[in-house]
Amino acid sequence: MRRGGDRRGQEKGDQTRNTPRKTLVPHRGRCSVSLRVMMTPETPTDDGEVVTTAVMSIVSQLVNPAGDGRGRAEQVEHQVEAAIRVGILSPGDKLPPEPVFADQLGVATLTLRQSLASLRARGFILTRRGRGGGSYVNVQAALTDKDVDRRLMEMSTGEIRDMTDHAAAISICASRLAAERTDAEDITRLRNLAAGLTQAKASSECRLADSRFQIGLAVAAQSPRLTAAMAQVQAELSPLSWGLPYCDSQSIFDEFNQRLIDAIERAEQAAAGHIAEQTFLRRAEILLSRYISLVAMEGEVV
């Protein structure tokens, strides 16, 4: 019996040695799955589902980078507006009931109502009464080229470079981790997000598609903290992007995205990180060049 048992143990060991070792994939928690659903391109609907807790967690972490003395209602208004502008909240999404929404954002219900009233007046959300009613995300109000230039002129060259450096660091990290952790489903999702930029016709569409792709990279990296950081930096960078100079570079960034996805699919971490870095070097170059042009034009006017 012992010899038979030893023989079976030896056969089992031989089978183990001859079986290819599977690559270990990090655990995909519920939060990660919820975030992936968030980054799936959607078509606006008239009866959207209530946004998930994972999505609201990201919204609650968006802050006003100016750090000024705004009241709490204005801060919440900024959080929701930023989430809409970068595509975390999409047209047709139904916001949670006010008591739940207020609790998720850590504010009083009255404060939330003030924020929603302002967003409603500005066209970012709409409210329906009666059965099936509630607050829904409306089609976002597009930034004009003048809006983009005005926001850019409010910054200095040092602030612009610091912002793009920060965004680059997050994108490089997300890209490298995505190359290590993604599966076929993630790759398909990233290609769908990248197609949004390829098919974009207006600067507002480019801005939204670009933000969603960058946040999608962090989602593919399976890191809720990294996703929150990416959403925050996109909320700051997006209003400055895709003005006049960007429109001439749409094909360049589209090519960057395709190369990046290819590197991620091949699990080439170093290559993915390098492409992400090159992408943001180009972004910084465009923004700084536009800033210098605006300063020069302002000097001529004066």
From TrEMBL:
InterPro entries in the record: GntR_C, TF_FadR/GntR_C, Tscrpt_reg_HTH_GntR, WH-like_DNA-bd_sf, WH_DNA-bd_sf
CDD domains: WHTH_GntR
Regions of compositional bias (Basic and acidic residues) in chain numbering: 1-15
Location of region: Disordered: 1-25
GO molecular function: DNA binding; DNA-binding transcription factor activity
HTH gntR-type domain: residues covered: 70-140
Keywords, comma-separated and alphabetical: DNA-binding, Transcription, Transcription regulation
PANTHER family per UniProt: GLUCONATE OPERON TRANSCRIPTIONAL REPRESSOR, TRANSCRIPTIONAL REGULATOR, GNTR FAMILY
Designated name of the protein: HTH gntR-type domain-containing protein
Source organism of this protein record: Candidatus Lumbricidiphila eiseniae
Origin organism lineage: Bacteria, Bacillati, Actinomycetota, Actinomycetes, Micrococcales
